[in-house]
Here is the input.
Amino acid sequence: MKIIKNAHKIQTPNGHTINLDIRYPEGGKDMPIAIFSHGFKGYKDWGFIPYYCNSLAEHSVIAVNFDFSMNGINDPESGMVDVEIFGHNTISQEIADLNQVIKFVVELEELKFKTNSKLILIGHSLGGAISILATNKNNSINKIILLASISNCNRYTKRQSAEWKKLGKLEFEIYETKQKLYLDRSFLDDIEENYPPSRLCDILGELQTPVLIFHGTEDLSVRIAEGKQLLNAAKNAKMLSIPNTGHTFGIASKFTETNDKLEYIINESINFIQKSNV
Here is the structure.
């Protein structure tokens, strides 16, 4: 089966660019659209994301992976980012980006006679939260898949928040590249003003949208307790715990090969997308 992969660019109202890839099988028709949102320090070509999306396309899903406009990635090969652009990002900006991607893909002439108009949002880590927030009050979303998703956007202690406000920024380092990044105060202000600790769970408690949750039992970045919080809050959710694996399911930032954990996640994702009764 030949997989078509086309790259697109979307300009945001604030002058930044959303880069996205769209994959689908040649000649495919009546296919759902799945849009993958990467995590906090991720990007569309990080680790398992392209492989995951290609696997969906091989099973008659139009798979879209994209870069949030202010993730700052300027060299996917090295994983290096534009520090200043990254520093001014916010949760609200990422929700706006995802909504813009949804609108762009739905209206794309290239897909007009290929899709059945069913929409699935897929998110890893922070991307899971963005997917939940974008689904709120959006009746066009048919299903959600959460991969190691956070359950609370405010992940900072009172001490960290106080220091952040005092200094005007929060500094940290990317483990793989050792690049030092920061977030300015607007990121924290946006969370405190718009996304209280219960926000994600409250939304899931109101949605009828089916949700599939994957979480590694050994996830040290986002503990499995957060996945269980989302499950317990949701009206219509199922959770699959992945034993003996962590936040990225055993896959490094530079993808070399798949593993049984990732294949399980892919297979269950495809089954969930293709089922008509969930």
User: Anything to note?
Assistant: The chain has a mean pLDDT of 96.
